[in-house]
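User: Before I run my own analysis I want an independent prediction to cross-check against. Here's the chain; please return only the structure tokens and, at the end, one sentence I can use as a sanity check.
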Amino acid sequence: MLSAQEIERKIPRKASLYSTIIPGAGQLYTKKYWKIPIIYAGLITSAYYIKENDNSYQLYRETYLNRIAGNNSDIFQGQYSDADLTTLTNYYRRNREISILCFLGTYILNIVDASVSAHLFNYDISDDLSLHIQPIYFSKENTTGIALSFNL
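Assistant: Structure tokens:
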């Protein structure tokens, strides 16, 4: 049996704080190393799509505004109508906003995961946890029953 000093405890608030400051640091603190690449893959992918959708949004928006202002330096040269440019502008703005939500969701999930991992750090998942059910006979009362025993 381990003494209280030998049991390593993880503080959920500390894990959350670490992951808030540096994504993945809470997983490092709770020794869930395999989750760190997943977190960074989600954040980097979301950031990439934020940038790509913002570039496309700015391009179609500026083209539409230049066309409305009478500037004839249109790079699409009649390839898109005004309605098409408006549709493309709205499409890429919406995709940019969804990408931002994905980024924020990944960041928040990183913090929640670190906290939950710290809460469950000392949870016992050994094979010795079992429930035994067996019939039993009480000779004094001349009755039968069921005996339940937990093995911790």
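Sanity check: The mean pLDDT is 89.
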